[in-house]
Write a structure and sequence with these properties.
By secondary structure, this protein is an alpha+beta fold. The protein has helices spanning 5-13, 57-71, and strands at 31-37, 42-47, 76-80.
């Protein structure tokens, strides 16, 4: 099975765990958009944080960039979106451990 760069990148981003919540950023729905430039083998990742003043924000952003660079040979840019996170953005079943769903 051939996996696209976007699928590979998204799967690799599952290794980035929000330390306060203990779930990965993909499960939490923090990755809002991926733009892949196949020619340059680069990516632009738009993500949000669980709270606007998340104390782990800078660490999470840097981890996303580093993990992204492990998949993409070109530049990986991480942009923080302005959308406010809420638990409904989580993947189906991800909130079960919290008793949210």
């Amino acid at each position: 099975m051939i996996v696209s760069k976007e699928e590979e990148l998204l799967e690799t981003l599952r290794s980035v765990i929000d330390p306060e919540i203990g779930l990965n950023i993909v499960e939490l729905g923090l990755v809002r958009n991926l733009e892949i430039d196949e020619e340059k083998n680069s990516a632009k990742i738009t993500m949000i944080l669980t709270t606007p003043f998340c104390p782990y924000g800078p660490q999470l952003i840097e981890q996303v960039r580093l993990v992204g660079n492990s998949v993409m040979d070109g530049n990986v840019e991480v942009e923080v979106g302005t959308e406010l996170w809420d638990p409904s953005m989580m993947e189906e079943g991800a909130g079960g451990d919290w008793g949210l769903f």
